[in-house]
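Batch job 17 of 40 flagged for manual review because the log was empty.
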Amino acid sequence: VALEKKHLSVFEKGFDFGETKAKKEICGVVEGSAAWKAGLRNGQAMVGVDMHFDPEKQATITIKENNKDKKITFYPAKQTEEKIPQYIIEK
């Protein structure tokens, strides 16, 4: 067993889920987040959402674009700023 410091992936939606759900319109997209990099933008009409609130499970947000449904997929995660001590079990 070894102790190493590593950056970890933590859950981050990358947009304001509560306001988006209430308005059925994408709100509060964080520039530079995984959602932003995937193409999610404020003001897009939201048709559906499939999100598991787990940084290792892909999220799919369905928006309406040019009168067609478009799926935007991304992993809702960001790296921790600081390295976190982790025990590594060597095989």
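Reviewer: the log was empty due to a logging misconfiguration, but the result itself is present. DSSP finds two helices and seven strands in the chain. Unflagging and moving on to job 18.
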